[in-house]
Amino acid sequence: MDESVLKSLIVALETIYDVASTNDARQQAQKYCEDLKRDPSGPLYGYFLAHKDNQQPDVVRHFGLSLIEETVRYRWSDSALTLQIKAQIRLNAISLAAEGTRPMLEEQAFIKEKIARLFVEVAKREWPGAWDDMDVCLRQLYYKDETGREMALLILRSLCEDVCVFDDAVAGLRKKDLRAGLAIIMSSELTLREQYPDGVKGHKDEVTLMVGEAGNDGWISRLATLLQELLPRCQSQSRAIADEKIAIATLKTLASALGWVIVRSIAAVPIVGLVCQTLLCPSEKIRLAGAECYDVLSCRNLADVEREKIIWPLFEEGGIDLISKAYLTYATEILDGEAYEFLQKTVQASVNLGEQQLCAKRSAYVPKELSKFLQLLYAMASHPSALISSTVSFFWATLLRHDTFSKDATVHKFIPSLLELYSGHLAKDYKNRYEVDPVYRHFASIDFDSVTDFRGYAEKTFSRAVDVIHLGVPVVPLDAIVWVGNKVTEALKEVFNETPNIRDSLEFQKFDGTLTLMEVTISSLRETIADKSHPQSTQVLDAMNTLLGMLIEYDNKCVPALERVVASLSSFTDMFKLNSTLLFRCLDKLFKTAEYPLLDISVREVRQLRGKAATTLVKVGRAIPDTLYPIYGEIDAAVQNMVQRNAIFQGEKRTLQSFLLVIGFNSERPLDRKAIFEKAVVPMVADLQSPDMQAALSDPEHFMGFIGATELSQALTQSLQVDQVEGLKSVVTQRRARLSGDIESIHVFMKETINVKDPQCLELWALHLGALLPSVFSTIRCLNALCDEKLWSSLSPDMGRVLTMSAEEKEMMVTGKAPTNAPGPRAPLTVAKLVSDLRIWLSVLRDQSYRVLAQASLLGSAFYSIPSLPAVLEQSLFENVDYLSNRQLRLLINHAVQPIVVNCPEPFMDSMLSHLLKVLFPYLDQRLIKDWKLASDQGLVMDEKDDPEDLDVTDEIVKEVMLRDLTYYVAGFVFSIFDYGKPTPVKPAVMPQQTQIKDIAPLALFILSQDAIAHSVISLICHLMTFKDTKACLRSTDAALCVLTALIQNYPGSAAVLSMFTTMVLQAAMEAIHDPYHQEGQEKLIRLITEVYVDVRALEESPKSVFQRALGADTSRLEDFERELSTTTNKSKKHALVRNFLQGIIGVAKSEWFKQKDQGEKAASTRTIAGKYERPSRSVLDSKEDEDIGEGLANMFDE
């Protein structure tokens, strides 16, 4: 060992950590340290620096450990690393663990963790096999002293996590051997003999030796004994710090093992009871670690016979009493920190215990202590934390669905209390509660990172409450409907104060919640009232009629309250099928409300009420068309009478016409659909074809005159009186209402009548498409042309506001909050207000026009066979696309282009899409590249993790939000093209190497068969992955995975495109994963790289070429990797090899690699309280240093 090198290294480290060092000096020192990591003598220097006896500063010791770890993790397979060198490194790791640290209470945690990490990295590569006495070393360390005991526990825990918990790349290569080795050392010799009488497990062709060391008790027994010793000593506030630390380490090690060790090992010792006892320990940290063990046990996937050994005793032997006492001790306190984390984890574990174990499928076990457990879960559901109470709702829903417990009398006793509890969540009063309830606000501020997150979760809580109520009501149907009836009776007596924003008041929210409860209850009783054999069917039906009668008679002067009651009437449609006694009165109520007299004081509210009544009629018509069939003539007459009397506006007229349409098109009775259809649709089509309308749509200049832009411009230069402004409004809005009314009506009628499974519906629309679509295309072309500022240059400068977003629109775009319109007298009308109205009108008309095209695309050949359709589409949609803002372009893609492309029938793809997509994909690609470059040059101002409501609504923020939205929706558009359906089983004889294939859409196959289109869309996908937008990155990565599947399944026909795809996607994914911005997407990007390499490398050389260019001159590692990959037949092992190899060529912080997914994302339905205490991530024993990320991969592939 060269002393001069040691001195130079220490000087370099001092330079790096000295705040007074210059950048050049620090970079040179960093380079020296990095070079030493690659030096063959690095581990030797590392051992000297790390050992406590050499008296180095902790940062130097930590770097010394990094020198050894670098060799172990990244160069262990190098041919230059001989068996002797490996043996020496292994001995050094043992030495450091046994005698290289200071006493337990003096040593820094990051040093201990780094040594444990090093030990584990060696073990994963050498044990079992080359290092057979590893467990002996651990036991010697464990029994040495308290310092050694803590180190042994750290090592064992880390090894268990890497092998059995985390998706560790190295462990994945030897998973079978490592898992078997761990199973053996964790269990006693006796347990292993009982579990494996023959000493082996597996099938005849592949067996694993499962024989324990003679006399070995196993680590589970050892840890249980240790807990039994420590817990009594940790019950007082004066407990020894060393005892507490060892107890915590023991529990954390258990948590890493209880999810997979042999169940007999757990059952053989009092682990379950000890875990329950830890929940009552005075130490917060011990309680928290114990709760983690409780959760691991609760989540474990067990067979019924295994539950009998370790779960049912928890119910039968006092475990529930201990858990209840632990929870209730702290449930009423205002907690934070680890005390609150313990409460959350206890709730999470209890919910998982109920869902995963008690309510396991086909389990018929009903514990004697069921009532105690349900009382505990009810108490948890009543907690003031929205997060906790909502999490518990999952359990109650699962319980009420379970075959056994849904019929259990003990469960039934809790239903009334549950209904009362969860009905309180239906009021959606979380905003008011947040403001007035300090306890509720306290927990919300801890549970959620932002107000937006809190509100989003509160909305989810509402749906979960609905689920519980929906399941509980049918169990006690009569009691439930009577209880609800009483609540509604009291709610209808409510007298509302005439205040602005009455809908936001606590009184109205409770009123709304009560009616929601009624609606949920009635929908839950559908089967009950239809079942004539049910003993309470008639009584429930009578109670519903009584309830409906009260609602029909309701005539409160509060318009929003009346609107809410009117909306609730559609919930009685199932009752009308069985008992239509009140149907006429209900329809009469709705018709009268649809022409409710306008009140000057609340015109907006009344218009909203009338619209709600009309849409409720549509819902009723859609639900019971056959019930309404006998009175269709009277309904039609009533609608026509209202139209002739001018009693309703255009919007209500359109909705009532939809009411007639849904009856005609949904009824199975012989109504004349064609007559009904033409009565509604033909007038709209004829109006669009009228000469004055055609003239208005002939070019942008005429269109501007038609919509009143010229008149408004002139009015802006004049001083008009209010009555003159009103007159101007009447003139211009009447013209505009014709066009927008026709387009919106067509869209509504299409949405209500187009049924791809009904040929008659398609034929009716096909007859009118030729007359209808030219007007729609002309409207879109004019609307897009109006986005050109030059067209407005001759008008008043104030007319430019038509092209800009209002402050309210900007706020809504950024924060997601819609502006509130306070009821009351209208402000005096101004010309400026008319200009603002024009901007809104143009936006709505554009959206409705796009949606008409989207609906037309559902007509199949009737739409796609229109002569010259591709040319007309491209002209109307894209002639003026450069003038569209990113927001407008996003709407165009999402609402028009995507459905037109995705719905295109296979026979029309070539004629319809070939030219369109050759132009579209490159345009989107280049536009996004240009806009993202501009945004980056100017400096991105948003952090995607920021709460939108906390952002300042500046022009820069708005511009960036629009760019991010466009980017994400383009990624979604591409994904929708390549997304495949469910796997389709095929016979093994057809594809011997796989049992199923993906159902690739014809559209995806068409695009990938066209070289130019395929190249452009793959280029677009690759750029979407690298833009600094997490959502777009994740979605485009999904698209790339779908493309890979399609190309592999169609190989060798896809060979040319596959080679291009592989090169481009690997480069883009490696660039993205190198960018710290894409930290959240690393896991999915790693999966993409791995799957591309494994699937494509078996067919061609392109993946190897990309890796070679990334590695540069270091070809030996690649050849070794390729050699090992070629000899591996197991696909999972191939994936592990690639993931392990990636660590050496992608410059991201090592601690961020291969982290386990959060429990909530797993396929298993375990409940996790998001963002709170979890099992430690892999980085808990990783380096705490700030590792140099490097310069990036953007230029790595340049020649």
Automatic annotation (TrEMBL):
Biological-process GO terms, alphabetical: protein export from nucleus; RNA export from nucleus
Pfam families named among the record's database cross-references: Exportin-5, IBN_N, Xpo1
Residue intervals of the Exportin-1/Importin-beta-like domain: 109-187
Region (Disordered): 1157-1199
This protein's GO CC annotations: cytoplasm; nucleus; RNA nuclear export complex
Span of domain Exportin-5 C-terminal: 339-1148
Positions with biased composition (Basic and acidic residues): 1172-1183
Domain Importin N-terminal: 29-96
One GO molecular-function entry: small GTPase binding
Similarity section: Belongs to the exportin family.
PANTHER family given in the database record: EXPORTIN 1/5 (PTHR11223), EXPORTIN-5 (PTHR11223:SF3)
Official protein name in the record: Importin N-terminal domain-containing protein
